Amino acid sequence: MDGYHLISLGEQPQWKERAAAWFHEKWGVPQQAYLDCMEAYLRGETAYGWYLCLAGDRIAGGLGVIENDFHQRTDLAPNLCAVYTEPEYRRQGIAGRLLARAVADLRAQGIAPVYLLTDLVGFYERYGWAFFCMAQCTDAPICSRIYIHR
Predict the structure, then answer these.
(1) I need a labelling partner for 2 at 20 to 30 A (CA). Which of 59, 89, 118, 136 fits?
(2) 10-residue stretch averages of pLDDT, the chain, 150 residues long
(3) pTM of the shown model
């Protein structure tokens, strides 16, 4: 991953506003919701972080860790969320490195397992994730897949 730099917002909080705008652009969740989660993390109110992969001064990819990612299985926490890599940076290992960093940071704090909600099949398995169950999403009439990383 030459030319890329993986950070957490805890290490470089100056990226908070740009990161919140970027995640909002990718997922359509209100920008303020991202800012609220990021600020709680930066104030030490939660151990759940936010991670970015930077290509120079551009965000190439990112993800966050939250309590629940809009599904009804509130007993399954924490959840990785908003995993995204810009199309021109895909197939270079960015998502895998972001996932590994978030899981390692959580594990170092004694937090495991970790979950994520997705409709993708075959992607997360490459990075040590396993299908766990189906879950009803709070904002959709259909169920999505929940994966676990132990």
Answers:
(1) 118
(2) 88 97 96 96 92 97 88 87 97 96 96 94 95 84 87
(3) 0.91
